[in-house]
Design a protein that fits this description.
The protein is mostly helical and 183 residues long. 81% of the residues lie in helices and 0% in strands. The chain is flat, with a radius of gyration of 19 Å. The N and C termini lie far apart (46 Å). Mean pLDDT is 79; it is low at 16-21.
Length: 183
């Protein structure tokens, strides 16, 4: 249900943001002014709705669905308010990492959390390479704490996946990360 709501919001937000980016005609008729005001109001309503869904996503029991909503909301909010987007995604990451690190978490749940954590890191990588690398290092440290040792193969595989995610955002960082895998 939340996914459907978010998809509808995404379409509204994305569509209205595209409309808002096209150059306005030179005419200053009353109809054009009203139409522009309506587009602005729709964009603002869509943005506020996305923020509300994101803020309330903690009530969603399914971790995968919650992470999907959080990663999509991050990408939308980033366009308008990068600081808020970074803070909210980091908060979501912290919550997942805490559950992952808990000794009460069973193996199946931990595997699901690993998948969702890497999805959030990938979402961050789509906009902020440095922050994504910091999140990944925190995840590696939590994994080491749980196992008592480093798992170099998994770390290298995750690093290579992050390098792939960074290709569109920061090719230099992507290359540097990928080269570490082959050292």
């Amino acid at each position: 249900m939340y996914a459907r709501i978010l998809s509808l919001i995404l379409l509204t937000f994305w569509g209205s943001s595209l409309n808002g980016q096209t150059p306005a005609p030179k005419s200053t008729t009353k109809q054009n002014s009203v139409a522009e005001l309506n587009r602005r109001q729709l964009r603002e309503q869509a943005y506020e709705t996305v923020k509300a869904v994101w803020t309330n996503s903690g009530n969603i029991a399914d971790v995968r669905q919650r992470t999907e909503i959080n990663s999509r909301a991050f990408r939308l909010v980033w366009r308008v308010d990068p600081e808020l987007a970074r803070a909210e995604l980091t908060k979501n990451f912290d919550e997942l990492l805490e559950s992952y690190s808990s000794t009460r978490t069973d193996a199946k749940s931990r595997n699901t959390l690993e998948t969702t954590i890497t999805k959030l890191i990938g979402a961050m990588a789509s906009s902020d390479a440095v922050a994504a690398q910091k999140l990944q290092q925190r995840y590696f440290e939590a994994r080491r704490q749980l196992t008592g040792a480093a798992d170099d193969r998994r770390d290298l595989a995750d690093t290579l996946n992050l390098a792939s995610d960074l290709l569109d955002t920061d090719a230099t960082q992507s290359f540097q990360l990928a080269s570490r895998v082959f050292e």
